[in-house]
Amino acid sequence: MKNVSVVMMLLFGFIFSKAQNTYYPQAFFDKKLAQQMIGFGNSTLEGVASTKQKNNWGIKPLLGEKHYAPKGTVVMLFPVTPYFEEFYSMRKKYENKKTTVYMSEEAFKYRIEALTDDHGRFKFEKLKPGKYYLETIVNFTATASYQQKTGQSDAYNAYGGYLYSTPIYQTFFYGYSSGNRESKFVEIKQDGELKEINL
């Protein structure tokens, strides 16, 4: 599990490697509170991790096809502490291609991880009532298309005089690999609750 966590951190680092600015929450991280929030309970949270093709970085998807998380994809669960709330608020406000927001190493430790099966399903067991945040990166391969000018059609009048030209485009298809971050806030209200979600 430790190796999986290292791979996940490297993946996040790769995704934001072009970031020029880095921010961290300034709120106090209460590790006792975080530890208490992810302590043992009797509730279960399970679901399916999936994503859809998006028009990112100039890639035009062929279809908005749904892709289920490959087997072994890491799904992370964080307790929603005041520190985490500031982290999420900052990320929503500041994060872009040039800026990224990280939580501290200590705060990142207080999480639970689950791995997806062959159908993208995951499960967290023995949870306490409370508010949680789930996040994963769903990697996939898909098909996209682009159009390229391959010629032109010229129009002439009855006397052979040139009128206008119409460009001729051809559609080309190609495969590509990508990954989307999927996340969701979930609240367990009663001990012993079984909650089903789509991530």
Overall description:
The chain has a single domain, classed as Immunoglobulin-like (Sandwich). It contains four helices and eleven strands, in the order αβαββββαβαβββββ. It has helices at residues 2-15, 31-37, 82-94, 105-109, and strands at residues 21-23, 43-48, 50-52, 66-68, 74-79, 99-101, 112-115, 121-127, 130-156, 162-188, 194-198. The chain has a four-stranded antiparallel beta sheet with strand order 7-5-9-10, with helices on one face. A three-stranded mixed beta sheet has the order 8-2-11, with no helix packed on it. A hairpin with a 5-residue loop joins strand 9 (130-156) and strand 10. It is elongated. Keywords: Signal. Residues 1-19 form the signal peptide. This is Carboxypeptidase regulatory-like domain-containing protein.
